[in-house]
């Protein structure tokens, strides 16, 4: 078997450059955690010493001329899906490893010319999506990832010849192997295992003793023996959340209810986009000078229906709300996500026809006119929020994670 690994170069920054070429060649940082941290940076910004995860106030000192942008996971997801489609044209079996990383099986004609295949995939993605990516092809997943990681940026490398493999492994520190961080490297060092080649040449049983079964699996992979299988089903997100800071302190339950409905509408958009339904809803409230509270309701069956989720959300808010407490943050979270398919409805569930018709009409109108052109009346208590167009974009929302 021959395995390919594709990884987009500085993906979030490159994605921003796709829609705004002004950013090309400039130091760019993408911000997360409510704008507090640099979660991705361009090579220009990296050269000035800015690190991923660094607070914005430190980064601005190192790179005052940098351009800092809020993250937009929805846009990154759109590009990710298009990359996945292109890789799928070259390889029938593709594993979605993360938003900008895929593994794929190289077969057919590609087997004869893996180097050309690596280049062809890289160049087509660059031509059609204007995204720079690096592709590595090797005998195992671990080797493919290792070779593509060290070929960045805009690299295309296929290494199937064992002599060449070992020549490259000799030059790479063992920490380059995904799964061997500095602590594990420290445990290997006393045995003279410093490079990837030392690791490959080490006694398998010794590796097992030091790094357990996980390390032993890596040892097999580094020696060209593929034992990590391809996972062809895209893993589901664990949680989806919408919410964030309210901008002001709120104790009025009517206003909080409006916020809840707004966040729920946005959460449902996200569920629909990823074609998943939820079995559990949670509302989390952050307070000024008081501990956070949460309300949680399990649902009778998996759903993305507004009417059912609104009923659950009302109960959640009632559990979480404390009279007189000042709320500063709210998150509406969907847990226990399931992929579409047939649903066993509960006995007393209202018929889906009416709510589905309304949901479809709302979706179609908003797709044509604007994201919040048609929204639930309960959100009318937040006129200031809807009056500002920038609030139609998501700043602090996460997929599979959330930050407070
Ligand atoms: Mg990447």
Q: Return the domain count.
A: 3
Radius of gyration, rounded? 24 Å
Per DSSP, what share of the residues sits in E-state strands of 2 or more residues?
Answer: 15-25%
In CATH, the architecture of the largest domain is: 2-Layer Sandwich
Helix content: 40-55%
Q: Which CATH first-tier class of the largest domain would you pick? A: Alpha Beta
> Shape, please?
globular
Task: Please mark out the parts with pLDDT under 50 across 5 or more consecutive residues, or reply none.
Answer: 395-404
Small molecules bound in the structure, each named once: magnesium ion
| Count of discrete alpha- or pi-helical segments spanning 4 or more residues | 14
What is the CATH topology classification name of the largest domain?
Answer: Dna Ligase, domain 1
DSSP, total strands? 12
Could you spell the SSE succession in H and E letters? EHEEHHEHEEHEHEHHHHEHEEHEHH
Mean pLDDT: 90
Cα-to-Cα separation, first versus last residue: 44 Å
What is the strand arrangement across the widest sheet? 5-6-1-7-8
Largest sheet features: 5 strands, mixed
Structural class: alpha+beta
CATH homologous superfamily grouping of the largest domain: DNA polymerase, Y-family, little finger domain
